Amino acid sequence: MLDQNVDDKKNQITIEDELQKSYLEYSLSVIVGRAIPDVRDGLKPVHRRVLFAMHELSNSWNRPYKKSARIVGDVIGKYHPHGDQSVYDALVRMAQEFSMRDPLVDGQGNFGSIDGDAAAAMRYTEVRMSRLTSEFLADIEKETVDFRPNYDNSMQEPSVLPTKVPNLLLNGSTGIAVGMATNIPPHNLGELCDALLHIIDEPNCTVDSVISRVSGPDFPTYGAIFGGQGLLDAYRTGRGSIKMRGRVEIEQFKKDKELVVIREIPYALNKSSLVEKIAQLVNEKKIDGVTDLRDESDRKGIRIVLELKRGTIPDIVINSLYKFTPLETSFGINMLVVASNRPALLNLKQMLEHFLDHRKEVIIRRSRYDLRKSEERAHILEGLRIALDNIDEVVRLIRASKTPQEAKERLMERFELSERQSQAILDMRLQRLTNLEREKLLEEYAALMKLIEYLRSILESDVVLLGVVRDEVVELKEKFATPRRTEILQSLEGIDIEDLIPDENVVITLSRRGYIKRTPLDTYQQQRRGGKGIAGVHTSAEDFIQSFCITTNHQYLLLFTNLGKMHQLKVHQIPEGSRTAKGQHIANLLPMDKEEFITTALTIREFSPDRYFLFVTRRGMVKRTALDLYKNVRSGGIRAVLLNEHDELLDVKEVPANAEILLATELGLGIRFNVGDVRPMGRSTAGVKGIALGERDRVASGVVFGDPERTQVLTVSANGFGKRSDVDLYRLQSRSGKGVINMKVTAKTGHVIGATSVSETDDILLLTSANKIIRTPVASVRNVGRAAQGVTLVDMENGIQVMGFDVVEGASVEGDATSTGEES
To answer: Active site includes 151?
Structure first.
């Protein structure tokens, strides 16, 4: 009883050890027997079994097609004890021209499409091996590879194919095992043959010299790649990454419209998914300027057409396609293979060396087989030659024998022949006794002796062996190499959109309901003071223009909201519209809350730490913050200023360190103080009091003075009145005072809508609630005292008011406008 307890303890194992052992065995089985290809023939077991089953059925390239179901049935019945669908999927992939660089199966029927369509059922399709595949199974009957029992030990299957083709790199491979994966891209057969010849001629060559013979992956779907350092890393270490890019062309369409046509797509990309993604981005306005999208692909090739709006720059659309869609994507190379029955990560040279080692072994085993067969045949021919030399005696001896066995023994004794030679003499036909047949026999014997000598030289000399390998590689290249399909790019940098867009002056208009557009400045021509203006933006009766500024295409457009947030765009990202167009809603460009709207549009070229923003709120608060605190803007915007209760952000200005500030109120007051009175603060602060407001008064505008050439204040009222006054008329005070009179406000003038700094060489653009814009010289506005009500700037009809204005600096002198970046 004690001994039994001891034996039980000896048999006990921990569950952790058993799980670890079982999992390792399972993972190794998946790696070696299912998911990772063999480095020698580049095939996974299922592909190898499919090809071998086709070979057994004589389903070669020069024979009739056979039903796919017949092949699948043989594979699952004899070699592959798994589901028929997995076998058929493997068969289908080997027949797809868009999946394999050089397909291994010649298919007849529907084998799927690059759009992701599934192949027809196996009972409908037919297959046979491709011509290239015949090189995979050549000499398999000559004991060139080891065979092993199938899953039920009833048959034998090859453990590897004696291929002459470096298939692992030619067609690539993808597989996910347990804890590891492989992803090898396809290559060009001609380049691989060149690399193999280089290794044969110089066995001690470096991996870099091998890389110089292989330009890079060569995908069946054409396209272009940029390998760079990632490709070098992959070829040197086994791991790396490359960029794949489709090919896009520009075609002329009609008179003034163009087409962007996608002719090639990256490898393994689903074409229909690409079209859907492009359509989604067009609808979301991330790809702008596209009026129509259609897939015109056919049997001749891929053709995805994007029809562009008039005036759209095609290169910008192409850049957006590369940036936002899988038309440009990465391919992660991971050259993990099964070598010597274990997983290994190999570089380019090592993979080719393993293939060459396999070819050497195949040739040696083939030569041994051929040598044995040749020697056996030569042995027989030697016996036949002796018989022919002594034919009369041989005939008498055979006739004198009672049985074949006696004749065989007497021949062996008389002529010192082996049993096989004697049997061959007895089996010889009488026609072999003719002189012609005798000559053929002697010629065959001489040829066999030469062959035997050659085969022995292969087995005895490595130089001769390598020569045979070399000849086979040269022959393979001559028979099957095709031109490269995938272009190798020296650089894959994106197009710089700003280089394609002229940095011209534009007007940005934003309505109160959130419609924004960009219009060339020269659309608005100069008029005399007091004119009626030209039609501007067409908005609905409930809408009006809220923000209005002049800038250039290459500047940053900073959009500040009433809730104190800031959003950022490039000016050229704003959709362009005609002078009367409504524009596009800001919600298509920026995420906005329901009660949030843009109060200020400000443009700058760069975010400098020694420059500052000045924030002004309706309740008279001011804040100064460095520009560089606003350069990193999230997609949802950032907090620009902290607002007190019942307050909202009115205006934002860029201010120099020695500037002066004038706050103008709606009821005609103004206070002037030095910007130094407002100390710099962080982003999420509320600021300090700038002016003490009356109960019904609010701040209408904040004006910055820092340019010695711009020392006048232009004030504009709601009813179209305006006046110009020297800034020196406003005495310099400390901030938070009540200020002095800025403009005489009456029922006739209406409340002050804003003020700005000007010089006599500027122009002013005014926008009315009737959506008309008038441009007039500042010099036509009389320079008066602080308390004046001003002159009529625009002829106002009943119920119409001025909603906004901006200044075009130096336009009256230079004839060209540049942006102030200021908005009222």
So the answer is: no
